[in-house]
Amino acid sequence: MTPEDPTFSAGAGAADDPIVLFNALLAEARNTERYDPTAVALATADATGAPSVRMVLLKGADARGFVFYTNSESRKGGELKANPRAALMFYWMGMGRAVRIEGAVEQVGDEEADAYYRTRHRESRIGAWASEQSRPLPSRFELEKRVALFAAKYALGEIPRPPHWTGFRVVPSRIEFWRERPFRLHERRRFTRTAEGAWTSTLLFP
Questions:
Q1: Is position 190 within any domain?
Q2: Dihedral of alpha carbons 130, 132, 133, 137, sign
Q3: Rounded-to-5 percentages of helix, strand, coil across the chain
Q4: Residue 44 within a domain
Q5: Overall pTM > 0.85
Q6: pLDDT value for 120
Q7: Is residue 148 part of a domain?
């Protein structure tokens, strides 16, 4: 990115829409990053406020929010039900860029979840049935048996989406863009959503 990077400009237009900026950076990351640029750290907290974090894959980003899919009966699924707020953190090392997102979380609709589920590899759809995500596993062989069981059950035809497998959308209230600069004098710009739904932004000290 050039020194005139619109992420940190004060001008109007696309530079003032954090979703447009995010998708522009993600498009660049797809061409430059060595590893999957959709990988993102997802932080949640349980009902007591105890935090946990793990990596997920971003499957959609638009004006409505940022979507990922998971087993709703997993640890993160349970935490999101008990405390429906989350934070996301993208870090693209090759570009020296990062994006932080915070907001409320909502479950995507069945139609949206079904549509994405149908795009997954058949083996991944079987895996969604076979894995009791986050629960104790007696042995690897037990998982392999469950995979074989569901592969036989759905040997023919379409594999339906498990009722416990769905998507969650982080509806952003705050998005921060970070750019690496020499001597740790990094650039930071934070967008905050107003009660009316508009975005305001400010630069931050590094």
A1: yes
A2: negative
A3: 30, 35, 35
A4: yes
A5: yes
A6: 96
A7: yes
